Amino acid sequence: MSELSSVRTGASAWTDKAYLRAVWSEIAKDRLIYLAIALHVLGAAILAWTLGAPEKLVFFAYLGVWLPGVAAVLALYLLAVEAPPCLMAGKGRRIAHLRLRAPDVLNPRVPAALCLILALILLHGSFTAVKNMLADLSPFQWDQALAMADKALHGGRDPWLWLQPLLGHHWVTRILQLIYTLGWVTALCVFTTLLALSRRLEHLRIRFFVTYVLCWVLIGNLMAGLFLSAGPVYYGEVTGDLVRFGAQEQYLGFSKGMAYSSFDLQHMLWTLHEQGRTQLGTGISAFPSLHVSMATLFALTAWAIDRRWGWLATAFLVITMAGSVHLGWHYALDGYVAVLATVAIWFGVGGLERRLAR
């Protein structure tokens, strides 16, 4: 029997017992990630029922955002990597080329990766649920202390004022707004999809995703709850001092009504917060910055893959950090602590991995 005729493709491979066993083996490799996510989902459910707020459990809120994002990443891969060799193979050999590539493209890691991504969707839903319950547990009482510390660390001046001469131009601000929203979400989808799928990056998968989960849980929920703050953009709302960051909000107001406007998004989030509504992306907490935490994780992972990608991801981290301050989302201290905490978690997970491997 020729090699070509022995290749299993399409739906038959997905129902083959050996193939299904291989898929289960791949899923089992990620069991530590699933355990961490399951514990957080359970904790979110217990907290919601304890507070009498089961309506805040929005476990599947991100389904409609994540799945199209992942599909877009996969489509881009197929168009950029798989399609060109197939088209160049010649009209009479394209089917043969597809048959040869199918076992690799539809390898057991693919359905395992889809299961992992579905679990991440649950994590983001439970994270949002907990984030929306933080204000029920504690008031926003750390903004004044963080703003004072920020000012002291930066020569007696609020950090956004140092950045304003460089970044305070409408076209620069608009670029930062786009990167901070669409760019960040795109990076999140790309990194999680590639790390979930790639067999070449298997040595980084557990470290990346365990760090990922711990960042969302420890930095985004636990530390945020212990030091609950709203951020510069809401400083007036939670402290009564409308002057301190009033000029920053006034400047950012130029983008009102524009696509991906941080000004509009911030006002929408505060309205939803006041209404007590929990949905995709809601919840207010500034310290530490999860945006910066994820950008740090992207940089650490990229450096572990290739130096060129490492430099690019580091540039993204710097832009994200600057954008978080310039756009009023965060105090600079939020980003500094997020970087340090993420690096500590990354190396802690790496050390634990090495000890378990002995």
UniProtKB/TrEMBL annotation:
Q: Does the keyword Transmembrane apply?
A: yes
Topological type in the membrane: Multi-pass membrane protein
Domain of life of the native organism: Bacteria
> Which key words tag this protein in UniProt?
Membrane, Transmembrane, Transmembrane helix
| Entry's transmembrane regions | 32-51, 57-89, 110-130, 175-197, 209-235, 280-302, 309-329, 335-352
Transmembrane helix keyword on record: yes
Any idea where the Inositolphosphotransferase Aur1/Ipt1 domain is? 145-346
Q: What is the annotated localization of this protein?
A: Membrane
Instruction: Give the main location.
Output: membrane
**Pfam families attached to this UniProt entry:** PAP2_3
InterPro entries given in the database record: Aur1/Ipt1, IPC_Synthase-Related
GO CC, alphabetical: membrane
Question: PANTHER family annotated for this entry?
Answer: PA-PHOSPHATASE RELATED-FAMILY PROTEIN DDB_G0268928 (PTHR31310:SF7), PTHR31310
Protein's recorded name: Inositolphosphotransferase Aur1/Ipt1 domain-containing protein
Which organism does this record belong to? Caulobacter mirabilis
